[in-house]
Amino acid sequence: MVIPNPFRRRSPVALSPLEMAISYLILIIWTGVVIFPLYWLLVTSFKLPIDVNMGPFYLPFIDFQPSLHAWDYILVGDLANDTRRNYFNTVVVAPTSASLALLLGTAAAYGLTRFEYRPRLGLILCFLGTLVIVVAAITLGAPWQVAILAGIALFVILVQTVARRFQRSLKNSDIAFWLISQRMLPPVAVVIPIYVLFQRLGLLDTHLALIITYLAVNLPIVVWLMRDYFQSIPLELEECAAIDGASRYRIFWSIVLPLAVPGLVATFLFVLVFAWNEYLLALFLSGAKSQTLPLTVAAQNATRGPQWWYMSVLILIMIVPVIAIAVALERYIARGLLVGAIKG
Amino acid sequence: MTTERVSRSALTEVGIGTEAPTSVVLRHVGTRVERMAGNVFILPAVLVVLFLSIFPLFLSLSLSLSRLKFVKGGFEIKFVGLANYHKLLFGSEQNHFLGVLGSPSLLGWLFFLGVMAFLIWRLVRYIRAGSSSVVSLVGRVLTVVLLGSIAWLLAHTLSPEGRPGTVVVTLLYVFIGIAVQYALGLLLAMLTTQRLPARRFFRVVFLLPMMITPVGIAYTFRMMTDTDKGPFQPIWQALGLGLYSWVNDPWGARTAVIISDIWQWTPFMYIVLLAALEGQSVELMEAALVDGANRWQVFWHITLPQILPVSTTLILIRMIEAFKIVDLPNVLTNGGPGTATESMTLHAFIAWRTLDLGGSAAIAYMLLFLVTFLSMSYVNILRRRVVEV
């Protein structure tokens, strides 16, 4: 019988020197791949237009004389007011919608992994049918109050007659699939209807419109990612708490959520970044007041061609806060919160 | 740790032992508020999504069935039935949307026949099993027909005489991109969960590309791929490609788009897989290693089953997102040369810019149809097998 030498390795999971070297090689290569475009943005932000157009220059002070003109233009010069306002808008919109999406999405994901839902198919079909008829009636010129009242009446009648016949009902997985399917239409197709919707509600060019839109757009992703993390959390813990008399809400809040922290952090980072960087929906839903930063970046592609130096500055100042948040949160994507919890 | 203990906790960790969403203990009947818990958890999310989804869905469907005409003092919307779809599939837009068909090469035929053989074998096995209802049988036959025709389209448009349309180009972006991103993301996540010094540095650095706004990434890569003024100009020069432009060569341009896409989205795969790997139990792995399993066995039998549910979700989400790729081809190549790098969403976007709202909505609906169908097949074939939802 071979007894592993206890002094050779600190832990059986540790790596041998050769494996270590290969690992570092791969990690460093990919770091280079990631960093180089960012480095190029950084040097471009210090270049004069002529330095960009005369061919590639790599090192400031050696290849070319760095200039602060682009930083000056964006931060204190002509564009400063726009930058500041759009920065503020982004800072308000993105974290708010990401936090709300995380809250609602996590709750829904927990519901989908721990409860059984059986929405009746007949009921849903009746609802959709009525809705189509009402919308058609309104577009064809019927007064909307009458159409909605008639719609409600029709719905009640349908539920009492037709829906009773349909015993088929949907399952949790159907709800989840419906949620994710809401992301399948490309933004180009939904942007006009959403624009019309917010116009009717009088919410165009407000933070609220952007927050609601990003919330709805991000929810399905949160639900799907968190559902898998919840499935890997053992039920025993929750059962113990239930026996001790904790309510479902309490179990969710003080037992399940702390255990799902790595997943929560990863998901939050993703939805935050999405809302922070979204372009097309923001283009339509925001006017002068609520513009966000991606619009400023895209606006630097002027009639004279892309203004690379301004763009680089904007991209760089855009990622700084997100990097700070990622650095602060990264430590929570750490191993071992579950280890020990179900021991014994 | 005894074997019995290991295997039991293995089952629990993988989620087999903990399935059954309604545990007996947890189903106890409590107060009224308590009994409503299920609805309280799910309803807010469902209502928010419902609020913003139904109206756009119907409005763009009705747009796709109509044509916008400019008349004095505004525009009028005229109902044209399926004309927009007909134009895409059989009419003037067919070459643009589906591509030019050529007779497939030997490889093309092999690919097509291989796919068909696999699909039919699956179908036959399913019918033999005997537990089929009419609805699911129809569904499966439909799957075979549609997947088969996608394979047929790929074989015919990627042949020497053929030219891929926006559908095929999008499929290429999606499947090549996702395969590389997943492999890279998993490799990097595995490496950074090892106890290496400085791993926290790598972890943050690897997330960086995700944080840049997609429009910004597109412009950054336009700088990167510039063979005349870009940073790699000396390399191109040395290779004698100084005057080569990605934008003039169809496959060169597509490669540029795919590389940028990989750079942009590998971090998403990476961060989710990292969280999944960190969530798995170390004890199991250590126990297996002590019992003499090698690293490959540990990965295959312990790590992979634990991250498989998250992986399938991840790939599904990425697939849905990747089908909507638009910024990269739009900024990098403007869809060119010709329409060689145009994705379906860019196709819709261009139609929309020229105020062909009906045509644009029709492309969007074709995309919706394709993605829904592919993700449903994906969920049915793969995911159900991995996680019993």
Q: Helix and strand layout, with pairings?
A:
The complex is a heterodimer of chains A (344) and B (389).
Chain A: H1 17-45, H2 49-53, H3 69-75, H4 80-114, H5 121-139, H6 144-165, H7 172-181, H8 187-201, H9 207-231, H10 235-243, H11 248-259, H12 261-277, H13 280-285, H14 293-299, E1 301-302, E2 305-306, H15 308-330
Helix pairs in contact in A: 1-15, 3-15, 4-9, 4-12, 5-6, 7-9, 9-12, 10-11, 12-15, 14-15
Chain B: H1 3-14, H2 32-35, H3 37-64, E1 66-71, E2 74-79, H4 83-89, H5 94-97, E3 99-100, H6 106-129, H7 134-157, E4 163-164, H8 166-193, H9 199-211, H10 214-224, H11 233-238, H12 250-279, H13 282-290, H14 295-322, H15 327-332, H16 344-353, H17 357-386
Antiparallel strand pairs in B: 1-2, 3-4
Structure described in brief:
The complex is a heterodimer of chains A (about 350) and B (about 400). Chain A has helices at about 15-45, 50-55, 70-75, 80-115, 120-140, 145-165, 170-180, 185-200, 205-230, 235-245, 250-260, 260-275, 280-285, 295-300, 310-330; strands at about 300, 305.
What does this protein look like?
Chain A is an all-alpha fold. Chain A has helices at 17-45, 49-53, 69-75, 80-114, 121-139, 144-165, 172-181, 187-201, 207-231, 235-243, 248-259, 261-277, 280-285, 293-299, 308-330, and strands spanning 301-302, 305-306. A two-stranded antiparallel sheet of chain A has the order 1-2. In chain A, helix 5 (121-139) packs antiparallel against helix 6 (144-165). Chain A is flat. The two termini of chain A are 30 Å apart. With 389 residues, chain B is mainly alpha-helical. Chain B has a domain at 87-101 and 162-386: MetI-like fold. A two-stranded antiparallel sheet of chain B has the order 1-2. In chain B, 41% of the residues are buried. Residues 1-22 of chain B have low confidence and may be disordered.
